[in-house]
Amino acid sequence: MLRFMGWVWDAREPQQAEFARSLQRTLLARLNWQMALDTRGAQCFLTGGHPSAQYQVLPHGAGIVLGTLFEQRADPVDDSAYRPAIIEPRDIQPLLNSQGRRLIENYWGNYLAILCDEHRSGICIIKDPTGPLPCFITSLHGLTMLFSSVSDCLNLGAFSFTVNPAYLRDRVSGRHETSHGALNEVRPLYGGECLHFDFRTHPMTRTTRLHWHPLRLAYDTNPVEHPAQAAAMVRAAVRACTRTLAAEHDAVLLRLSGGLDSSIICACLADMPSRPTVTSYTYYDPHGPADERPWARLAAAHAAFEHLEYPFDPQTIDLRRRPKLLPSVYVVSILEYLDLSKLERQLTADRGATAIFSGDGGDSGFCSDSIALALVEYLKRHGLRSNALLLATQISLYTQRSSWQVLANSLRRWFRGQTPADQQEVQETINRLAHPDLRSRTAVDSTPVHPWFRDCDETPWALMRRLGNLPNPMPYYDLSADPDTKTPEVVAPLYAQPAVELFLRIPLYVHFFEGKDRGLARDAFAGMVPAPILQRLWKDRAPGFLEEIVSRNREALRELLLDGVLAASGLLDRSATEQALSPMPSKSLVVPIELFSHLDTELWARQWMDGRHEPGIAEP
Predict the structure, then answer these.
(1) Residue 338 class from Cβ within 10 Å (0-12 exposed, 13-18 middle, 19+ buried)?
(2) CATH topology of domain 227-364+470-535
(3) What class of enzyme is it (predicted)?
(4) Among 502, 500, 422, residue whose Cα is nearest residue 462
């Protein structure tokens, strides 16, 4: 997969220039790196990557675009693949004048752009809004370092990083939407963010600004409210994004769960005029009471795709034999690396696949995660009308509350706005193991600090749910594999920028069409997805899967959590953790997902602290 490193420095400073030359010599001594940009005050180097995800050099020495880039278009019901974008000479000046804003408005993809103005008086670095290619930033000796994989940065031998205790506190308290840097010396370049270097000042100055604002899309004064129009646009956008992202691949894999979202992507891949060879596969619990395989088989058969089934047996999982992972800037889920990534790598090699497609982004994009807030948005847009009571009744069927409770809560949030107390009940179910002092602090202070939300007057819980995993940089590389090993890119068309922007412009209550979970999506893909899948309003969640893993790994979990960084730092409640992991019957209400969240955080912290417990957590 494509990886990059680059640096920006003040060319008027001899020490910075010498440091840049030293980094260049170190990097180019490794034969698999190539220089993609070499200009006054900036260099960029690349390695790996599918041929469709490389880079293009911009005319007139105006910089480079790393990754994939496609042209935006105006027709909302055109479902053909988007055209790959080639930046022409006439496009350069508008891009430079807007400091990259035009790039985000007129193009989309999975890219990082480095723009250099003709007088070499400044450089802009722009991250696309929703693509998974990460960009992280650190500084040393006045030089600003850009990288996509922290392992590459560490291998240079010049950088070292320390854990930010604020990030650990947020993780343990259940606040995963934090923008506190996980590492004190590293920060991400967020989606739609521009990092600008001004060489006209001395010393060189560095500023950031946002060019993409999801809040403005979600509260558009001209929303798409007509269900038929919205359904046609959703169908076209998802088909177009899927066709575009699959077009450069000869063979792909498809994670097919049998749920609605992956079945929609399955149908869109099958509907391509010239499609790649698709192999679908499904994981299942061989001992579980619920079984997704009949639904996955139905979707695969409807698309005429090869379909494979693999058992993921919780009774065979031994956390003491967990794989060793490469360092990561943020916490990653160990569950994803317990046999699954190895199996996918083998399947990729067997089928010659270069990408894995998934339905990720459907829960958030089609608003399954935010049904409870649909009436609040309706009231904000239309006030208290007769339809509000019907909508309250429909929501009550999904929220285990009465119609009057739904209506009363929605009216309160409409009049008073949303408060931290609105999230407190949810928060309390996922941080029962946090130290009591930490839990009380979280109840008072739960305002998100992500740049997308900093200007909000109130906590935009509905918008945060609708964005899914986008606010937090997600793992892009397989951390269980050698960085130079060929691994497939995981592609999620429902997180593509045109799809996300359209989903946000459609109000929650329209997504909840006919009072059904993902009702609009069901209507949009009628005739493409098998009718039984569209009609099924539940999903078999493999109950007991995580509980079985916990039951068989209690001792390992006790050692890792009770003798680890989080407990030694006073972040975990030792007594509550002991009770939750006791082999004896107890009244603990801790859910397994919280245990695994703390396990992920613990393993990540230990890795950065070289096995030390209390020392090594540096204050920012």
Answers:
(1) buried
(2) Rossmann fold (3.40.50)
(3) ligase
(4) 422
Instruction: Give the pairing type, strands 355-357 and 251-255.
Output: parallel
User: 3-class SS at 279?
Assistant: strand
Q: In the chain, where are the structural domains located?
A: 3-212, 227-364+470-535, 369-467, 545-608
Give 460-495 as a DSSP string: -HHHHHHHTTTTSPPP-S-TTS-TTS--PEEE-GGG
Burial annotation 284-307 (CB, 10 A radius, 16+ → b, else e): bbeebeeebbebbbbbbebbebeb
The encoded tokens of residue 414 equal 């409409």
pLDDT beyond 90 at 237:
yes
Whether the pLDDT of residue 268 is over 80: the answer is yes
Tell which residue, 243, 247, 6, 35, has the closest CA to residue 112: 6
Q: Are 556 and 334 in contact (CB under 8 A)?
A: no
3-state helix, strand, coil in the chain (%, to 5): 45, 15, 40
Query: Phi and psi of 496, rounded to 5°?
Result: -65, 145
Cα separation of 33 and 43, whole Å?
13
Identify whether 132 is preceded by a cis peptide bond (ω within 30 of 0). no
Q: Are the beta carbons of 171 and 597 closer than 8 angstroms?
A: yes
pLDDT tens-place string over residues 457-503: 777 888 989 999 999 877 899 999 888 888 889 999 999 999 999 99
Residue 565 contacts residue 605 (beta carbons within 8 Å):
yes
Question: How many whole angstroms separate alpha carbon 519 and alpha carbon 523?
Answer: 6
Superfamily of the domain at 3-212: Aminohydrolase, N-terminal nucleophile (Ntn) domain (3.60.20.10)
Query: 3-state secondary structure string, 365-397?
Result: HCCHHHHHHHHHHHHHHHCCCCHHHHHHHHHHH
**C-alpha span between 489 and 503 (Å, rounded):** 24
Torsion 545-551-556-562 (CA) sign = positive
